[in-house]
Amino acid sequence: MLSIKHNAKLFYRIDIQKLQNIDKESKEIIGRVNSTWSDIEYLNYLFHKNFGRLSDDSEIGMTFSALLVFSDSFYVHMSTLYLLLKQLGEKHENVKKLLSLNQKFFTRIQIIRNNILIHKEKPDYKKQLGSMSATDPSHLIEHKVVVIEKDGSQKIYTLKPLLDIYKMSRLLENAGNLLLSEKAQQGC
């Protein structure tokens, strides 16, 4: 789970100051990655702040449902991060390799974003048959959605936003380290 940070200066994921010799386009993409990550950090902070109040809430069911909707926003931002990393991968081979090694994770993020959360207006939008929600003791929220696939079969998607943003934070950290090592290799 991500730690709760109370200072927005701690929200960056890739330290652009250490990548002084990187090209302008890559700097712009990294800036957008960091900006999108800040959105995730703010959501994470508010999510946990409100999650901690659930035990005293007389409308706990409604509050929990609202937090599920709130948590879905993480997937929109993670999808944006994936697309930005893909752009970065076009210029940096190590980032491209990192993406290919984690393609299953990124595909899952895109499926959740595109077919479960966003494109409800499209005719092939996955129809929700129902949903249920649960948390484990460490507050790793799970949101299970039963959907009908295009071929008519049923499939369950389990959304674990707090676990997924933790994985994304590690991937962004690795991308930053790969960019630093690439810079070091070019300097030799």
Sum up the overall morphology in one term. Answer: globular
Number of DSSP strands?
3
H/E series, N to C?
Answer: HHHHEEEH
The secondary structure category is: alpha+beta
Strand content: 5-15%
Strand order within the widest beta sheet: 1-2-3
Which percent range fits the helix content? Answer: 55-70%
Question: How many helices in DSSP terms?
Answer: 5
Indicate how many domains the architecture comprises: 1
List the uncertain runs: none
| Integer-rounded radius of gyration | 18 Å
What is the overall pLDDT average?
79
Largest sheet: 3 strands, antiparallel
N-to-C span:
37 Å
What does this entry look like structurally?
The chain is α+β, with helices and mostly antiparallel strands. The chain has one domain (9-122, 162-187). Helix content is 60%, strand content 12%. The chain is built from 5 helices and 3 strands, in the order H-H-H-H-E-E-E-H. A 3-stranded antiparallel beta sheet has the order 1-2-3. A hairpin with a 5-residue loop joins strand 1 (127-135) and strand 2 (141-148). Helix 1 packs antiparallel against helix 2 (60-91) and helix 2 crosses helix 4. The model has no long low-confidence stretch (mean pLDDT 79).
List the helices and strands and how they pair.
Layout: H1 24-51, H2 60-91, H3 93-101, H4 103-118, E1 127-135, E2 141-148, E3 154-159, H5 161-187
Antiparallel strand pairs: 1-2, 2-3
Q: What are the main properties of this structure?
A:
alpha+beta; three-stranded antiparallel sheet; 188 residues
How would you summarize what this structure contains?
The protein has helices spanning 24-51, 60-91, 93-101, 103-118, 161-187, and strands at residues 127-135, 141-148, 154-159. With 188 residues, the chain is of the alpha+beta class.
